[in-house]
UniProtKB/TrEMBL annotation:
Pathway: Glycan biosynthesis; trehalose biosynthesis. NCBIfam families: trehalose_OtsA. The keyword Transferase applies. It comes from the Bacteria. PANTHER family: BCDNA.GH08860, TREHALOSE-6-PHOSPHATE SYNTHASE. This is Trehalose-6-phosphate synthase. Belongs to the glycosyltransferase 20 family. Pfam families: Glyco_transf_20. InterPro entries: Glyco_trans_20 (IPR001830), Trehalose_OtsA (IPR012766). The lineage of its organism: Bacteria, Pseudomonadati, Pseudomonadota, Alphaproteobacteria, Hyphomicrobiales.
Length: 466
């Protein structure tokens, strides 16, 4: 079996993968199965002008290899082009995107540096799998150095329609660089179609119905590989003593009440402000919920070096204050906002204790919270998932109550419908949802991707456009 080399911005954790999010779990699982290397940024930033050594660490059959980046790279490549340019554009937020040639240059330089350090370590029969928007150009840099191995790429965030991506200065070079990959995977069919359309419209590319895209003599495989969760393990978490304890604590803090839960990193893509407004609208339009229904929002801070993230947090605190000031009584607080990370088991317990799961991003590659909420529910008394049509998860989870998160009234009505939904309808919808979560799980995700990569043609690698 070939050695697997995974490249992603963040590497690990390997041992505490139970605490980490889905991606780390998936990568560890895939690497354990066939042995391999996990390569990326160490998470450490060195003073400007110093580029750290390659650090290696062995964890069973997995070799972890990481590089530091210096302060200038951190600001240009990571906080800059990745998080201030690509992240907003790929989530359709041109209004928040920052364009700057210096940031772009730093991005290409860091992609090249990571490729340069990786290339000599590659063995002839390795299979390389690159992840996410931080490394769009890494494959092209490896190819330019002479790499002939199969190299696949998976994008965890949405790929926007061509009209949006065309607003990115330098888009042609960047998106064309992706043709160095043999398989290019997206979360949804919609994203895969947008990528193909980009090449059809900008470069006269053509595609077959089964996703073989040909551009100027180079053919690559493009497809949807929806990421999932480890449904069985998460379900066990939800039934663990720790989860029970957490659920009991929540319930005893507010007897006979219905809880609505949201769990998201604080990010403008997650639709948190709209969600809080919809919850407030629920209390206005359906006053019978006052004193009875509360929203528990778990929202750890992220990327606080980007202004837009700090603004969102302040806005959420402001709305929480307003809504609570307006509606609270002695025994009931409408919105509770928790901004610290929780253990996976505690989180699972909270999902299970809450009758409504509110997942309403304005745009999201997949959204694993939607799947975790479903997996955590009790079969005999499941909660209801309210899901944004703009989350990749909505493509498969269509038995949820699907909403347009920009429509505050519609979202408020969906929460109301969820709160009063009869048991048989809840069970019926949950069974359909859980079936999808179980079949499109984390193992299905990486094994279908890796088998597509194993089967990918490589006879057009000499025609990769510059
Ligand atoms: P994210 O934008 O981070 O991921 P998401 O898919 O929802 O979004 O995953 C978040 C993970 O963090 C979940 O597993 C969740 O349980 C966990 N989490 C959130 N808040 C937490 C808290 N307070 N404590 C502990 N854990 C918490 C990106 C893309 C998504 C895509 C994933 C995977 O933006 O669209 O689904 O990658 O491909």
């Amino acid at each position: 079996m070939s050695r697997l080399v995974v490249v992603s911005n963040r590497v690990g954790p390997v041992r505490e993968s139970a605490k980490a999010g889905g991606l780390a779990v998936a990568i560890v699982d895939a690497l354990r199965a066939q042995g391999g290397v996990w390569y990326g940024w160490s998470g450490d930033v060195t003073p400007e002008g110093t580029h750290g050594m390659l650090k290696t660490e062995q964890a069973g059959r997995i070799s972890l290899m990481t590089l530091d980046i210096d302060q200038a790279d951190y600001e240009g490549y990571y906080a800059g082009f990745s998080n201030r340019t690509l992240w907003p554009i790929f989530h359709y937020r041109l209004d928040l995107a920052q364009f700057d040639r210096e940031l772009e240059k730093s991005y290409w330089t860091v992609n090249e540096r990571f490729a340069t350090r990786l290339y000599p370590m590659l063995q002839d029969d390795d299979v390389v799998w690159v992840h996410d928007y931080h490394f769009l150009a890494l494959g092209a840099k490896l190819r330019a150095m002479g790499a002939r191995q199969p190299i696949g790429f998976f994008l965890h965030i949405p790929f926007p329609v061509p009209e949006i991506i065309a607003a990115l200065p330098g888009h042609a070079a960047l998106v064309r660089a992706m043709l160095a990959y043999d398989v290019i995977g997206f979360q949804t069919k919609r994203d895969a179609r947008a990528f193909i359309r980009y090449f059809e419209e900008e470069f006269g590319g053509t595609a077959t119905a089964d996703g073989h895209l040909t551009v100027q003599g180079r053919t690559v495989r493009v497809g949807a590989f929806p990421i999932g969760i480890d449904a069985e393990t998460f379900r066990k978490f939800a039934m663990s003593p720790e989860a029970h304890r957490q659920g009991r604590r929540l319930k005893s803090s507010s007897e006979h009440r219905c809880h609505v839960i949201g769990v998201d990193r604080i990010d403008y893509t997650k639709g948190l402000v709209e969600r809080f407004r919809a919850f407030s609208r629920l209390l206005e339009h359906y006053p019978e919920n006052r004193g009875h229904v509360s929203l528990l929002q778990v929202a750890p801070a992220s990327r606080e070096d980007v202004d837009a993230y700090v603004d969102i947090r302040e806005e959420l605190e402001r709305i929480t204050g307003n809504v609570n000031g307006r509606f609270s009584d002695l025994h009931w607080t409408p919105i509770r906002l928790i901004t610290r990370p929780l253990q996976r088991r505690s989180l699972a317990g909270l999902y299970r204790a809450c009758q409504v799961g509110l997942v309403t991003p304005l745009r999201d590659g997949m959204n694993l919270v939607a799947k975790e909420y479903v997996a955590a529910q009790a079969e005999d008394d499941p909660g209801v998932l309210v899901l944004s049509r703009f989350a990749g998860a909505a493509e498969a989870l269509d038995a949820a109550l699907i909403v347009n998160p920009y429509d505050i009234d519609e979202t408020a009505e969906a929460i109301q419908r969820a709160v009063i939904m009869p048991l048989d309808e809840r069970q019926d919808r949950w069974r359909q949802l859980f079936d999808k979560v179980q079949t499109e799980d984390i193992r299905a995700w990486y094994s279908t991707f890796l088998s597509a990569l194993g089967a990918a043609g490589h006879d057009t690698r000499d025609a990769i456009p510059e």
